[in-house]
Amino acid sequence: MLMVFIAGMGMMQGMAASNTVIQTIVTDDKRGRVMSYYTMAFMAWRPLAAFWPGPWRTILAHPGR
Prior knowledge:
Layout: H1 2-25, H2 31-42, H3 45-51, H4 53-61
């Protein structure tokens, strides 16, 4: 459980740091577009990643099919 906590803290720190760097180096007129791509790249994959194990669980649970 301690490792999960440490991994979660590291992930939060990494997301905050990358968000800060992106917003710092991008010009004001392009910040909204860049942040939307950032959000799509790093946040929008989570629902797909949650859906992905379902078919694999079925295949691995019944290898004879």
